[in-house]
């Protein structure tokens, strides 16, 4: 009975989190299209230059406590209150540090406007600290429906305000307002509707217990964030803000595809894995199903984006973003690995191996940054992107190896399970590319032919050979489709 209940919660969580994520994707997609036409690459570049500072600060504020609260089976009121006051206090201190360091950062990039932008956007850190515990409680309680409704509504409201500000000529400040609203509105909703309030208590015992697990999650997050965003420092220092804007647009568009589905699964699977942490057989089964489902959906999507990158960017963003296209195509190759990373890393965290995660995370990230720097040094920005692709695959293989060691899901078995999906996507890509190359049509019609050929081949091969990922996706979707049709008949 307990197993069935947990499965129902997990499936429901995947559905509601998918609704939330894909609704936000749609809103972000519309926002990206409209804002790309109203704003300049320099405006996006300005925000992109500050990303590493904002992300590092946010990771440090959380301190790994969010993961520790979810990993702990029965957190107490003292635990929640202690984490809340810690997050709030650290966020204020870090904001003040960024406030006074803002002129130095602006001089580093030789862009005076960055000082004011960082000081205003830095308020996001304090606002986010106010909602971290509230959001973690909702995740812990599998209340994904509430999260989905809140974040989807926030995205729609923020979209309207941001487009209006951009239309009125606010430039980069429209993007700053967007970033603040996306955090501020959910914070207000959670505090207004959630019944939890902190007690005036800070427990040293709770702090030590949670920090014992969370410190390694923090260090892992800091290293990962620094390495994943270090390219922004190089681009900002060595190139102009417009180049950073082209890269940021390519990166954000690729992340809509590769990160979204894996984040949907991660948000749900981490609490599920935590509940199953003492039963490795069931965890292995869960990893197999989740990884196959992710790969079945994301692999073809990444290959399609590489195939259709040019007509897609010109149609959506206009000719002024053409320079982003080769960056985007290379990042999609990294996205193939990124979509698989979370399912493995979440498992290691859920069984309490945060120290091992940190040690191996440090190794893979340091080696990864060598790839990025070497690529930049030898071949410029495209070489740097090639280094990012190599780094993404390195991270996946290290994560898969850790699952092999600590969970017992052999790495070669993992790769063998994924190989049919990868081969199917590659064959579909190659034949669709050849069909487009020899059809002799214009750019958009050619793209339509390539899309049709790819989808028919991919779905057809998957159906004929009964790929595991297709079954797993069907197992999640089918019960909800049946409920929908039953209601429709009534």
Give a brief outline of the structure.
With 490 residues, the protein is mainly α. It is 88% helix and 0% strand. It has helices at 2-38, 41-62, 65-71, 77-109, 113-121, 123-140, 144-167, 172-193, 204-238, 241-275, 280-307, 309-317, 325-350, 354-406, 411-438, 443-465, 468-489.
Structure commentary:
Helix 1 runs parallel beside helix 7, helix 1 runs antiparallel to helix 10 and helix 11 packs antiparallel against helix 13 (325-350). This protein starts with a helix and ends with a helix. By secondary structure, the chain is an all-alpha fold. The chain is globular. It has a domain at 39-238. The protein contains 17 helices and no strands.
List keywords for this structure.
490 residues; mainly alpha
Give a count of the beta strands, DSSP E runs of length 2 or more.
0
Measured as a percent range, the helix fraction is over 70%
Low-confidence stretches: none
Number of helices: 17
Strand content: under 5%
Distance between the amino and carboxyl termini: 30 Å
- Main β-sheet description: none
Round the mean pLDDT to the nearest integer and report it.
Answer: 81
Shape: globular
Q: What is the H/E order? A: HHHHHHHHHHHHHHHHH
What's the alpha carbon Rg, rounded to whole Å? Answer: 22 Å
Q: Based on helices, strands and strand pairing, what is the structural class?
A: mainly alpha
């Amino acid at each position: 009975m307990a197993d069935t209940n947990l499965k129902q919660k997990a499936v429901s969580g995947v559905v509601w989190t998918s609704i939330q994520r894909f609704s936000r994707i749609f809103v972000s997609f519309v926002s990206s299209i409209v804002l790309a036409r109203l704003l300049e690459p320099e405006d996006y570049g300005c925000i992109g230059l500050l990303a590493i500072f904002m992300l590092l600060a946010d990771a440090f504020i959380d301190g790994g406590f969010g993961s520790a609260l979810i990993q702990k089976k029965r957190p107490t009121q003292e635990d929640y209150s202690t984490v809340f006051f810690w997050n709030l206090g650290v966020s204020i201190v870090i904001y003040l540090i960024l406030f006074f360091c803002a002129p130095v950062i602006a001089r580093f990039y030789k862009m005076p406007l960055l000082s004011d932008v960082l000081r205003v956007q830095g308020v996001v850190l304090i606002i986010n600290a106010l909602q971290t515990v509230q959001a973690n409680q909702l995740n812990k309680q599998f209340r994904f429906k509430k999260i989905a409704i809140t974040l989807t509504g926030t995205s729609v409201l923020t979209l309207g305000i941001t487009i209006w500000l951009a239309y009125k000529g606010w430039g980069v400040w429209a993007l700053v307002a967007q970033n603040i609203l996306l955090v501020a509105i959910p914070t207000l909703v959670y505090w207004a509707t959630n019944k939890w309030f902190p007690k005036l208590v800070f427990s040293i015992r709770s702090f030590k217990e949670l920090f014992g697990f969370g410190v390694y999650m923090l260090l892992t997050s800091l290293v990962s964030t620094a390495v994943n965003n270090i390219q922004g420092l190089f681009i900002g220092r060595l190139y102009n803000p417009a180049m950073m804007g082209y890269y940021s647009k390519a990166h954000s568009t690729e992340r809509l595809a590769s990160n979204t589905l894996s984040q949907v699964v991660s948000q749900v699977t981490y609490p599920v894995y935590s509940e199953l942490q003492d039963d490795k057989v069931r965890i292995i089964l869960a990893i197999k199903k989740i990884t196959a489902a992710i790969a079945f959906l994301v692999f073809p999507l990444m290959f399609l984006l590489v195939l259709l990158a040019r007509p897609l960017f010109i149609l959506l963003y206009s000719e002024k973003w053409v320079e982003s296209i080769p960056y985007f195509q290379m990042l999609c190759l990294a996205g193939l690995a990124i979509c698989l990373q979370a399912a493995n890393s979440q498992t290691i965290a859920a069984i309490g191996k945060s120290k091992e995660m940190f040690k191996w995370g440090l190794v893979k990230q340091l080696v990864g940054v060598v790839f990025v720097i070497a690529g930049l040094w030898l071949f410029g920005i495209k070489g740097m992107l090639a280094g990012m692709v190599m780094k993404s695959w390195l991270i996946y293989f290290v994560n898969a190896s850790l699952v092999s060691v600590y969970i017992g899901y052999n790495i070669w078995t993992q790769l063998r399970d994924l190989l049919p999906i990868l081969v199917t996507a590659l064959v579909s890509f190659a034949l669709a590319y050849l069909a487009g190359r020899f059809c002799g049509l214009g750019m958009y019609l050619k793209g339509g032919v390539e899309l049709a050929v790819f989808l028919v081949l991919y779905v057809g091969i998957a159906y004929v050979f009964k790929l595991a990922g297709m079954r797993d996706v069907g197992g999640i979707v089918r019960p909800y489709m049946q409920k929908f049709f039953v209601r429709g008949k009534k």
